[in-house]
């Protein structure tokens, strides 16, 4: 019975377990794109969790675009598309406990090329948005914050400037790999300031419409950030 489930667990722990069990169904191929998930009650019994924990997990994964809830029909794994494949990449990496160094290696394969495209396509309005993100990042750091939200915004704006929606989804999916409690241990004033200064150099190169310099500065930014973060990784 569901009333006996979640014994000894906090609501947050039960929710996290439900999310991971559903992600396992996706990674293992037990549920194919477009396929229907078992009913909540069945999943709750199989997982040894309450229906409310399973329901919250399904809602969270639906918000990420991995699942689709259809009224009167049930919950389905989102059909394969460029965007959903990128989201599933993030799910797979989380399941395999991808090391930070692997994430940054993958980012270096993508983001320097993205910024090359951004240099060609960026509009004056997008440039002003990037400047605003950097200004807000600096202000947040100077007032005791980490600037992390503005950091992500800057990378998203660069991706948007490519004009390719898959670039935006790639950046969002990779950013989601750091949406875990351990990410807090990576924050430090040195890391935050280094990220800000790197963004300024990337922005200057974009403003100068210099593709080679922009790609070089983006690669440098990611390498420096990796060195700072991996120095704290166990």
TrEMBL record:
<feature type="domain" description="HTH gntR-type">
    <location>
        <begin position="12"/>
        <end position="80"/>
    </location>
</feature>
<keyword id="KW-0238">DNA-binding</keyword>
<dbReference type="Pfam" id="PF00392">
    <property type="entry name" value="GntR"/>
</dbReference>
<keyword id="KW-0804">Transcription</keyword>
<dbReference type="InterPro" id="IPR008920">
    <property type="entry name" value="TF_FadR/GntR_C"/>
</dbReference>
<keyword id="KW-0805">Transcription regulation</keyword>
<dbReference type="InterPro" id="IPR036388">
    <property type="entry name" value="WH-like_DNA-bd_sf"/>
</dbReference>
<dbReference type="InterPro" id="IPR011711">
    <property type="entry name" value="GntR_C"/>
</dbReference>
<dbReference type="InterPro" id="IPR000524">
    <property type="entry name" value="Tscrpt_reg_HTH_GntR"/>
</dbReference>
<protein>
    <recommendedName>
        <fullName>HTH gntR-type domain-containing protein</fullName>
    </recommendedName>
</protein>
<dbReference type="InterPro" id="IPR036390">
    <property type="entry name" value="WH_DNA-bd_sf"/>
</dbReference>
<dbReference type="GO" id="GO:0003700">
    <property type="term" value="F:DNA-binding transcription factor activity"/>
</dbReference>
<dbReference type="GO" id="GO:0003677">
    <property type="term" value="F:DNA binding"/>
</dbReference>
<dbReference type="Pfam" id="PF07729">
    <property type="entry name" value="FCD"/>
</dbReference>
